[in-house]
What does this fold into?
Amino acid sequence: MISFLVADIVQAFYTIVWPMIRISAMLITAPIFSMKAVNLRVRVIIAIAFTITIYPLIEWPMLDPLSAPGLLEFFNQAMIGAVMGLMLQIVAAAFVVAGQSISTTMGLAMATMADPNLGTVPVIGQLLTILATLIFLGSGGHIVLIEMLLESFRLLPIGQKLIIPEIYQELIAWSSTIFLGAVLLALPILSIMLLINIGMGIVTRAAPQLNIFAVGFPAMIIVGMFVLIASFGGIGMRMQWLWNLGLQQIRISILGIA
It folds into this structure.
């Protein structure tokens, strides 16, 4: 009886380990779930909860994780989950780059904060990251991501379909969204700050005795803050669009859903 019990446990382990690998890899790389505030214990609990939820719904293959096919499948499942999270991490990186550009233009490049998730980032970058996180959660992006992860087990069955090399090429091409998103978010503020710089240059040429450093830097910070506050509505809509674009990219590139 004990031998039958051990065999059942081994068989269950050989089947349940595969969905848990894909889910855990996604939780490690995806925004929100990969934050240091969501510690390792919480991620493990979430991965176990998702695995137990989906386990009775699908017929899972039994593969030995120590065999050659098992090691290949281990790598494949980890890469599927990791790429799904990295698609959205690229979008999150665009907000940091936009904040750095805005901070540099406003003269706040030296005003940085030690973020445990992103490292040392400018205060505007931290502000945009928090705003983007709230928009992602408020719009239900985390729920959509979890739904796509669970749907991936039906569209990309374990042991039947390997992740194709084209996905890595699409991930590299998708990384250009970092700069595209940063330009879309920062362009209104950068344009106005450019006009302010041109105006300060004209004033300096007209009145050389004026101390441009004593007048220009405070003016740029004040004007930049007002422009940033006035642009929050448009910035929020662009953030929403970027998140939706990232989720759509996961559907097309990984799940194959147009």
About this structure: Strands lie at 112-115, 119-122.
